[in-house]
């Protein structure tokens, strides 16, 4: 059994390059898998390991100046959901495409999961899912607005195109959520910059809501997409029912697999026409290597490239 930790915190980092190297060195010692993004605005990532080593990794992150109270959500997986360790330098630890948006300076109100239901059931609340369209498609809160974004950096344009009135910005309650809390926190900073007066976001995101709110009282409908090989999790944080297309990394259902456009490890109805025959041939060769590795009881390193789905 592997423990998985989704973690992030906006906190100013003076020397991201040095911090990147320190984290990489320590995590390699602990045999940590997953991805950590390091930037001037903070740390963001998801990692996995056996519980004892993961706990040491968390303790190390919390020992870094400014990250003692880093937000962490734990879950579990029967198999390791990651195949390697990546520690990456990024200008933004979650990309919204506007350097002037800084959650370290201004941010919306954090709403605890226990108070979330009453907020989103308020008739004066505008509930916005800040995740991408493919995430929304497999599960979301009831009555949540889907901005139909392909990537998070599309979100500011969506807000501007809604033509919110001055009255909306002054009187409506804006409630936003995402998987682990980082995107909706940054989005709240952007919304305040755009003139919204009453902006809130779900503390710890959907994963924290699943942990803290009983399923019988839940207003969530469906499963929650996660960015690892589990693909999705259910309300009890167990692995969900979705699989992943290894051509485009999008979630797929058993119904999708019945499509003539589905080729295992190569393409699905979403990406079949987005890739060339040369790409499909490479993906087929990669899948063959994966299958051979499984027969030898070895773990294949996995795909290094992903298809960018066009809008």
Description:
The protein is α/β, with parallel strands linked by helices and 311 residues long. It folds into three domains: 2-89, 2-Layer Sandwich (Alpha-Beta Plaits); 109-222, Oxidized Rhodanese, domain 1; 250-295, no CATH class. The protein is built from ten helices and 15 strands. The strands form five sheets. A five-stranded mixed beta sheet has the order 4-1-3-2-5. A four-stranded parallel beta sheet has the order 6-10-9-7. A two-stranded antiparallel sheet has the order 8-11. The longest helix has 19 residues, at 277-295. The radius of gyration is 20 Å and the shape is globular. Mean pLDDT is 92; it is low at 303-311.
Short description:
This protein has 311 residues and is α/β, with parallel strands linked by helices. The chain contains ten helices and 15 strands.
Key phrases:
311 residues, alpha/beta, Alpha-Beta Plaits, Oxidized Rhodanese, domain 1, 3 domains, four-stranded parallel sheet, 10 helices, globular, disordered C terminus
Number of helices: 10
Beta-strand content: 15-25%
Helix percent band: 25-40%
SSE-based structural type:
alpha/beta
Spatial extent as radius of gyration: 20 Å
Number of strands: 15
Task: Draw up the topology in text.
Blueprint: E1 2-10, H1 16-29, E2 33-39, E3 42-49, H2 51-63, E4 71-77, E5 85-89, E6 109-111, H3 113-120, E7 125-129, H4 133-136, E8 139-141, H5 155-161, H6 166-171, E9 173-177, H7 182-193, E10 199-202, H8 205-212, E11 220-222, E12 224-225, E13 232-233, E14 243-244, E15 251-252, H9 254-257, H10 277-295
Parallel strand pairs: 2-5, 6-10, 7-9, 9-10
Antiparallel strand pairs: 1-3, 1-4, 2-3, 8-11, 12-13, 14-15
């Amino acid at each position: 059994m592997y423990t998985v930790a989704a973690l992030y915190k906006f906190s100013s980092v003076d020397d991201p390059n040095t911090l990147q190297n320190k984290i990489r060195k320590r995590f390699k010692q602990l045999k940590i898998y997953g991805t950590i993004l390091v930037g001037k605005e903070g740390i963001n990532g998801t990692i996995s390991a056996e519980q004892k080593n993961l706990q040491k990794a968390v303790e190390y992150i919390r020992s870094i100046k400014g990250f003692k109270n880093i937000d962490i959500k734990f879950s579990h997986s029967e198999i390791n959901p990651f195949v390697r360790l990546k520690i990456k330098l990024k200008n933004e630890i979650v990309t919204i495409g506007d350097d002037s948006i800084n959650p370290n300076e201004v941010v919306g109100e954090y709403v605890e999961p226990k108070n979330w239901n009453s907020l989103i059931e308020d008739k004066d609340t505008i509930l916005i899912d800040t995740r991408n369209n493919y995430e929304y498609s497999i599960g979301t809160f009831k009555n949540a607005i889907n901005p139909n974004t392909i990537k998070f950096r599309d979100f500011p344009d969506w807000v501007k195109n809604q033509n919110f009135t001055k009255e909306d910005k002054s009187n409506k309650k804006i409630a936003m959520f995402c998987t682990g809390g980082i995107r909706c926190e940054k989005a709240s900073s952007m919304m305040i910059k755009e003139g919204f007066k009453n902006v809130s976001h779900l503390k710890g995101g959907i994963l924290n809501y699943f942990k803290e709110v009983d399923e019988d009282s839940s207003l969530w409908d469906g499963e929650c997409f996660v960015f690892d090989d589990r693909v999705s999790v259910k309300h009890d944080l167990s692995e969900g029912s979705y699989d992943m297309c290894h051509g485009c990394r999008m979630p797929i259902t058993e119904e999708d697999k019945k499509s003539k456009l589905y080729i295992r490890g190569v393409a699905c109805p979403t990406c079949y026409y987005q890739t060339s025959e040369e790409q499909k041939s490479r993906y087929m060769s990669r899948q063959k290597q994966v299958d051979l590795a499984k027969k030898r009881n070895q773990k294949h390193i996995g795909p290094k490239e992903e298809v960018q789905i066009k809008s």
